[in-house]
């Protein structure tokens, strides 16, 4: 299994429905293809856990194109818990949760950069975190990266160094 990534957002403002809507808009503006089957997973008690989308760099032509598996979790899902404020240099008073889980970033760096740029433009207070990194990306960090010639290793470099 490869390196995963997540969007960090304010827990008090999080809504899976809004994340779904913002994902659709971000995919549209990043010229990505989006596949959403509306297959929801539930707990044994019938509570919504998550749904899954695919975001592709190109249309669904059957070619081996860049593709993300993107999970949208309920606010009550244990997968949304976030404890790494200090490790990442974030304000511990911010009530953040992990949403928009991407299963594997490898080979998808350009797709992720374009998609996350559009997502963060819609949600400028959110962050993007690649789980193996000791830093997060803000909208300003992503905008700076977008203003430079594309570097396929962008996601392995601290934006403040």
In brief:
The protein has 161 residues and is of the alpha+beta class. It has helices spanning 16-29, 109-122, 139-147, and strands at 5-10, 33-42, 48-56, 67-73, 96-102, 127-130. The longest helix has 14 residues, at 16-29.
Blueprint of the fold:
Blueprint lengths: L4 E6 L5 H14 L3 E10 L5 E9 L10 E7 L22 E7 L6 H14 L4 E4 L8 H9 L14
Antiparallel strand pairs: 1-5, 1-6, 2-3, 3-4, 4-5
Helix pairs in contact: 1-2, 2-3
Distance between the termini: 28 Å
Tell me the major beta sheet.
Answer: 6 strands, antiparallel
* Helix count, DSSP H or I runs of 4 or more residues: 3
The helix fraction, in percent, is: 10-25%
By secondary-structure content and strand pairing, the structural class works out as: alpha+beta
The secondary-structure element order is EHEEEEHEH
Shape: globular
Strand order of the largest sheet: 2-3-4-5-1-6
The percentage of residues in β strands lies in 25-35%
Low-confidence stretches: none
Number of strands: 6
How confident is the prediction overall: mean pLDDT?
90
- Rg over CA atoms, rounded to whole Å, is 15 Å
Describe this structure in words.
With 161 residues, the protein is an alpha+beta fold. The chain is 23% helix and 27% strand. The chain has three helices and six strands, in the order E-H-E-E-E-E-H-E-H. It has helices at 16-29, 109-122, 139-147, and strands at residues 5-10, 33-42, 48-56, 67-73, 96-102, 127-130. It has a six-stranded antiparallel β-sheet with strand order 2-3-4-5-1-6, covered by helices on one side. Helix 1 packs across helix 2 (109-122) and helix 2 (109-122) packs across helix 3 (139-147). The longest helix is centred in the N-terminal third of the chain and has 14 residues, at 16-29. The protein is globular and about 50 Å long. The protein starts with a strand and ends in a 14-residue tail after the last helix. The relative contact order is 0.23. The mean pLDDT is 90.
